[in-house]
């Protein structure tokens, strides 16, 4: 990875927005973001029309990393059940990291409360892709009601992520995976 001083001001701002908004919430101030990035406010506004746009760009930039984190390493050989359960196993593993604060996309949706906010649009897109992925896997696995199962799995994922991120639930015991397994069994997923 390149050292921070070799990154462009835009990249430093996006990195700072990702770090601070994940740790402190999306209401983090422009001054704090600029200070963290080592970039002047004037430069920030030359690069982005607003803090809202910078936050959205920061969330957008993390999508490939986020989605790769939950993608089965041998997806072609894995069954739909294995690919779904891998998502929950990875969630459990991530949830015990010291800097874990839950799903950054769910957090943005909850904190912003404005469905038209640029960051809300990005976050909602990520959550909708997760639901579509679960639905497609449920269809491939022969679930009786793939749409309902996908909704249930997202509910478990988001709930487990939020509770672990808030420090009120420890997922190290496999609770999220066992809950997802029960849903898969009840839905008749092979």
UniProtKB/TrEMBL annotation:
Kindly indicate which segments of the sequence are annotated as binding DNA.
29-48
Say which domain of life the source belongs to: Bacteria
The answer on whether this UniProt entry bears the keyword Nucleotidyltransferase reads no
What are the residue boundaries of the HTH tetR-type domain, all occurrences included?
7-66
Per the UniProt record, one Pfam family is TetR_N
**Keyword terms, alphabetized:** DNA-binding, Transcription, Transcription regulation
State what protein this is by name. Answer: Helix-turn-helix domain-containing protein
Organism of derivation = Streptomyces sp. 900105245
